[in-house]
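Here is the promised in-class demo. Please do not try to memorize the tokens; focus on the logic of going from shape to residues.
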């Protein structure tokens, strides 16, 4: 019997592919500590091995592992070594490959997937160009597409794999060398190291420069003159010559027009199509996901899970044009049997389905679209939210355009012209399906030229110019795409790294003191590492490799020379860089007032450590505490000590209000939930390194008692002790729902009474 070895990228994908190819007869097996899947196809034995991503990783030789002693100029040109990071998979693959008559690479069809396939073949000694090796190409994990891809196998593209490997090598070399330089120069080693990246740093520079623009912006006053007219209802017009720079000029116009009527100079009416949106590519999908409250990195993880579950097409794509081979009507027919049946019926009621088209037409993967509907098991809330976004976007792209009526008039009041604009939706079209877009209607009546129109009022509105807006996740992703910073597969990860490393926070995005200080240091010397153009040029070089116009070795060598030039620019400015970074961290921002001196209490953040201090010399109000989550001011003071209260916002949890003094009784009383049943210590609310709250004993590490907690809702102490395990009984309140429970989830108390009604009106101490 012949044996075929199939290499998959992830276990979920492997399980689904093997299920499809075997018609549900595949069996999961285990050997030498690794799971694999096996099935037969006639006289052929198929063995599917999932890799869980890369099984090898690049590293520098051991001589460069000591950051303080590394010669960075030598490190720039050092050979990289390949390490096997998944030895179990390596061993299993070598054994199975020796028995295999052919090997099929079935990783994701993109540059990263091609590289994973090639490096795996290299590791087990299989020649990617031999007739024994084949490649399965697919964009969705559906039955027809998987079966078709395995019946029409192609060759592995070594050039695409080389372009991905070039990016991996260049990113490692640049990131390692520059991170070490800035960390050693600023004396920030260990957990406080300063991370620098080829894409990460220019992205941070964009955010920091925008923040600098906002801080330096000087608002200027201006005056709008607005007239309110009446016909079949009120409608408004603005002074045709635009805003005025002085209040005196505005007052003069108001006085001259008082009590006078309006005369229509001209009126126009037109019907304008509301064009349906283009299909989703990766960037546009992540932008829309961020608008509905799901961070780009999280949205991509959910999309990848939906893809491996066979619900959507491959989520990493630049394409915004549906392939002609996709049966759009068939997909709408499938959605007719889902919770989106009403929307699907609208689409199917059309005589002809004509999809919208975006600007980019690629051949690797189609735009993101749904390929099937969930089974009986419901999707989790966030997963459903993303799936619904993709479904509604797809249906919107194949429904009809909307139609709106636009009216515009010029009305003269004693020779002074006012422009009025109206907008009304005649046919919502695709807007009925896609509720994430709203059109604000503005009333304007039908009027005729020379018609007299009554004037209800004329007012002068004082306003000020505004600074440019901060980037939000959607706009920074779009800007990164336009500037060729990163790729569709990496941009969301870059933003997540900037957050995790304490350089940015929030949405809209605000650079932290550390982020601003780093960019100040980078830009203070003659260096191009914060400029998008340099990164974009390297991206172009990698495209040249994929298109066989350049070799991987020549591009990597060129990037090393570029890095050496950058390093020379930086090397003579170590002291200057250290001073800028350290001074930047002490700038801070005001978080409230000192109760003793009524001067500002400043706040700065360095990754997860928050620092608070009074600016009055000699004041002892200086607090340093570990806080995971976004910190915002509240304009309230602590009822116990008078220090400012701050709000801590963590994803997936109710906001928490705390005093800046970690030892204040206000904080301690809200954190203490009862007595530890093991050693009599205090059970207190803690935060894990991943931002999850739980209960732990105050005598840790000598006592290791911990209990999980619901992440949302306010916790109340009942004063009661569990009769089964002696833990304190608690109440979780969320909205109108109250749940009384024992924090020991395995306790008999919770098993016997799943839902407990809690009487209102009782006094309770709360913790958030």
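The designed amino acids, position by position:
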């Amino acid at each position: 019997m012949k044996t075929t070895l199939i290499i998959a990228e992830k276990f979920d994908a492997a399980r689904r592919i093997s299920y499809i190819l075997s018609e549900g007869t595949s069996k999961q097996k285990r050997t030498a500590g690794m799971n694999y899947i096996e099935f037969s196809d006639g006289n052929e034995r198929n063995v599917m091995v999932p890799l869980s991503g890369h099984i090898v990783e690049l590293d520098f030789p051991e001589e460069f592992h000591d950051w303080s002693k590394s010669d960075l100029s030598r490190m720039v040109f050092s050979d990289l070594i390949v390490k096997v990071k998944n030895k179990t998979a390596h061993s299993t693959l070598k054994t199975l490959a020796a028995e295999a008559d052919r090997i099929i690479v079935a990783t994701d069809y993109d540059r990263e997937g091609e590289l994973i396939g090639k490096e795996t073949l290299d590791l087990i000694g299989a020649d990617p160009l031999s007739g024994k090796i084949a490649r399965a190409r697919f964009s969705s994990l559906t039955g027809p597409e998987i079966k078709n891809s395995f019946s029409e196998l192609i060759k592995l593209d070594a050039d695409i794999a080389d372009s991905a490997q070039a990016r991996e090598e260049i990113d490692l070399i640049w990131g390692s060398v520059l991170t070490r330089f800035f960390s050693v120069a600023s004396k920030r080693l260990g957990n406080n190291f300063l991370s620098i990246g080829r894409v990460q740093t220019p992205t941070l520079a964009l955010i920091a420069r925008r923040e600098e623009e906002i801080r330096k912006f000087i608002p200027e006053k201006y005056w709008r003159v607005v007239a309110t007219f009446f016909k079949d209802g009120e409608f408004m017009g603005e002074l045709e010559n635009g805003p005025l720079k002085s209040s005196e000029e505005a007052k003069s116009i108001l006085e001259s027009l008082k009590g006078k009527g309006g005369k229509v100079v001209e009126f126009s009416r037109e019907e304008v199509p509301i064009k349906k949106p283009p299909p989703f590519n990766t960037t546009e999908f992540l932008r829309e996901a961020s608008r509905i409250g799901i961070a780009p990195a999280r949205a991509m993880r959910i999309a990848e899970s939906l893809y491996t579950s066979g619900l959507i097409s491959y989520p990493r794509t630049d394409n915004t044009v549906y392939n002609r081979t996709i049966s759009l009507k068939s997909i709408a027919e499938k959605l007719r049997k889902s919770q989106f049946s009403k929307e699907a019926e609208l689409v199917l009621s059309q005589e002809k389905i004509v999809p919208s088209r975006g600007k980019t037409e690629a051949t690797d993967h189609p735009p993101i679209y749904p390929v099937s509907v969930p089974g009986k098991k419901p999707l989790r809330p966030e997963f459903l939210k993303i799936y619904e976004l993709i479904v509604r976007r797809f249906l919107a792209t194949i429904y009809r355009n909307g139609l709106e009526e636009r009216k515009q008039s010029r009305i003269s009041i004693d020779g002074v012209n006012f422009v009025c604009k109206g907008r009304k939706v005649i046919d919502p079209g695709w807007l009925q399906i896609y509720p994430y877009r709203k059109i604000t209607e503005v009333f304007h009546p039908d009027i005729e030229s020379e018609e007299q129109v009554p004037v209800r009022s004329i007012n002068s509105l004082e306003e000020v110019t505004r600074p440019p807006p901060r980037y939000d996740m959607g706009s920074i992703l779009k800007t990164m795409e336009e500037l060729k910073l990163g790729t569709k597969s990496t941009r969301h990860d870059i933003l997540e790294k900037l957050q995790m490393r304490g350089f940015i926070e929030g949405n809209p995005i605000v650079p932290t003191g550390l982020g601003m200080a780093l960019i100040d240091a980078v830009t203070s010397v003659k260096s191009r590492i914060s400029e998008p153009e340099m990164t974009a040029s390297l991206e172009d070089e990698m495209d040249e490799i994929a298109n066989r116009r350049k070799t991987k070795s020549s591009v990597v060598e060129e990037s090393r020379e570029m890095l050496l030039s950058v390093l020379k620019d930086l090397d003579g400015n170590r002291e200057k860089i250290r001073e800028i970074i350290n001074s930047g961290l002490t700038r801070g921002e005001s978080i409230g007032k000192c109760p003793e001196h009524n001067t500002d209490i400043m706040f700065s953040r360095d990754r997860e450590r928050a620092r608070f201090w009074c600016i009055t010399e000699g004041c002892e109000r200086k607090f340093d505490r570990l806080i995971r989550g976004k910190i915002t001011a509240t304009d309230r003071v602590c009822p116990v000590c008078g220090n400012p209260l701050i709000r801590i916002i963590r994803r997936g949890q109710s906001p928490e209000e705390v005093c800046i003094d970690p030892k204040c009784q206000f904080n301690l009383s809200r954190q203490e939930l009862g007595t530890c049943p093991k050693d009599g210590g205090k059970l207190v609310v803690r935060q894990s390194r991943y931002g999850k709250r739980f209960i732990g004993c105050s005598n840790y590490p000598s006592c290791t008692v911990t209990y999980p907690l619901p992440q949302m809702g306010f916790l109340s102490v009942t004063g009661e002790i569990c009769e089964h395990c002696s833990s304190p009984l608690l109440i979780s309140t969320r909205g109108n729902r109250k749940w009384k429970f024992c924090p020991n989830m395995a306790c008999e108390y919770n098993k016997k009474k799943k839902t407990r009604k809690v009487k209102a009106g009782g006094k309770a101490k709360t913790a958030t």
